[in-house]
Amino acid sequence: MKSRIERKFEVLKSRQEKALIPYITCGDPDLETTVSLVLALEKAGADIIELGIPYSDPLADGPVIQRASQRALKNPITIDAVFDMVEELRKQTMVPLVFLVYYNSVFRYGTERFLKNCSESGMDGLIIPDLPLEERRELYEQMKAYPIDLIPMAAPTSEERIQEIVQVGSGFVYCISSKGVTGKRVTFEDSLAHFMTQVKKYASIPTAIGFGISSQEAVTKLKGLSDGLIVGSSIIEKIEEGILAGDIEGKVFDFVRGLHQAIE
Q1: Secondary-structure class of domain 19-178+197-263 per CATH
Q2: pLDDT tens digits, 105-148
Q3: How far apart, in whole angstroms, are the C-alpha atoms of residue 11 and residue 194?
Q4: Which residue in the list 6, 28, 47, 61 is annotated as catalytic?
Q5: CA 20 to 30 Å from 41, out of 58, 159, 239, 247?
Q6: Among residues 60, 57, 65, 63, which one has the least CA distance to residue 24?
Q7: Cβ atoms of 210 and 175 closer than 8 Å
Q8: For residues 213 and 8, what is the distance between their CA atoms, to the nearest angstrom?
């Protein structure tokens, strides 16, 4: 049976469209706002939504997303509370949802229990940035019992292992645009096009570029290189602006609507 993520990319391909994949952190600034933001993101044109589970030591995240995790962790947030939130969301939307979660959180919660609750609550995919390829193989086999995609991450520095990486996963390949952590970038390396060519050479699933995409101009420039684009830090900045202005949903909706217009 095809996953929601796979079906979404098939529909987009039939329309010759690209996927817009925004990222927000669960519980930033609270879980009720996260529910409202997911619904606003979908209305603004999001095709798949990435939900970060807040973590105290997010190695792959830059300062903006680290601040989001810190705001979320000031609340009594738990993984069970996040699953409850997803169940609430599933009463209102069927938009594909993906967790970005660090493996220590999964391990401490209990891997089998985590996967079971992902399936029962309605999650569609997992991105685990700190899971080495060898351990990924074991988890990938374990996840075949669940209707959940394990989304592989490929970086320019992993060129020699790209073929192995993209074969241990499903849904789409998360292609990291450049070295370093998440955050806004004004320019992208000329080698990105070559890197994407290498990924597509081996991948049988769609590709999406993430890290650094922060404007309509960047979306316009990069959308021809992949099947989708992931936008995170600049959306978190709109949440921060919205916290100060008292209009989080409005700030995020307007920004993501502009990105959607650029990716069309």
Answers
A1: alpha beta
A2: 999 999 999 999 999 999 999 999 999 898 999 999 999 999 99
A3: 27
A4: 61
A5: 58
A6: 65
A7: yes
A8: 21
Going by pLDDT thresholds of 50, 70 and 90, the confidence category of residue 247 is: very high
Query: Is 230 in contact with 215 (CB distance < 8 Å)?
Result: no
For 95, phi and psi rounded to 5 degrees? -60, 135
Which residues touch 53 (CB under 8 Å, ≥6 apart)? 26, 79, 82, 99, 100, 101, 102, 105
- Are the CB atoms for 6 and 172 separated by under 8 Å? no
Of 151, 132, 209, give the one whose Cα is nearest residue 176: 209
Tokens of 11: 């529909």
* Cβ neighbours around 221 below 10 Å, total: 15
Question: Dihedrals φ, ψ of 190, to 5°?
Answer: -60, -25
Quick check: is 32 catalytic?
Answer: no
Under DSSP, is residue 79 helix (H, G, I), strand (E, B) or coil?
helix
CA 48 to chain centre: 8
Determine the Cα–Cα distance for residues 180 and 192; give it in Å rounded to an integer.
14
For the segment 175-196, what is each residue's pLDDT rounded down to a tens digit?
998 764 454 544 466 789 999 9
Sequence letter at residue 45: G
DSSP state, residue 205: S
Distance from the Cα of residue 106 to its chain's centroid: 17
Q: Where are the domains of the chain?
A: 19-178+197-263
**Residue of 50, 227, 237, 240 with catalytic role:** 50
> Parallel, antiparallel, or unpaired for β 207-210 and 228-231?
parallel
Answer yes or no: 138 catalytic: no
Asked if 161 and 133 touch (Cβ cutoff 8 Å), the reply is: yes
| Whole-structure pTM value | 0.95
